[in-house]
Design brief:
Radius of gyration: 13 Å
CATH topology: Arc Repressor Mutant, subunit A
CATH superfamily: Coenzyme PQQ synthesis protein D (PqqD)
Structural class: alpha+beta
Number of strands: 5
Helix content: 40-55%
Number of helices: 3
Distance between the termini: 7 Å
Largest sheet: 3 strands, antiparallel
Order of helices and strands: EEEEHHHE
CATH class: Mainly Alpha
CATH architecture: Orthogonal Bundle
Number of domains: 1
């Protein structure tokens, strides 16, 4: 699976609030710092496995633990129609 932001949705660095937000039609999501690390890798090219591998290497954490968390987060955002793919 290759996740990507749904049409009209994007990750944006809000300089006034000094935080990352997901801009969507008529709404704004404020992901936590961990979610931002994942979302910065969602580019419509990387697969979920590639995202997990990158995070496991970056944080020297067990791949399987990261995969469970990333899959749950991406599924939630897909259910909210923030992500497609």
């Amino acid at each position: 699976m290759v996740p990507q932001f749904a049409r009209g949705h994007r990750l944006h660095q809000d300089k006034a609030r000094k935080r990352w937000v997901i801009l969507a039609p008529e709404r704004v999501f404020e992901p936590d710092e961990i979610a931002v690390e994942v979302l910065l890798l969602v580019d419509g090219v990387r697969t979920v496995d590639q995202i997990v591998d990158t995070l496991a290497e970056k944080f020297a954490a067990p791949r399987e633990a990261i995969k469970v968390d990333v899959a749950a987060m991406l599924a939630d955002l897909h259910d909210r129609q923030v992500l497609a793919g």
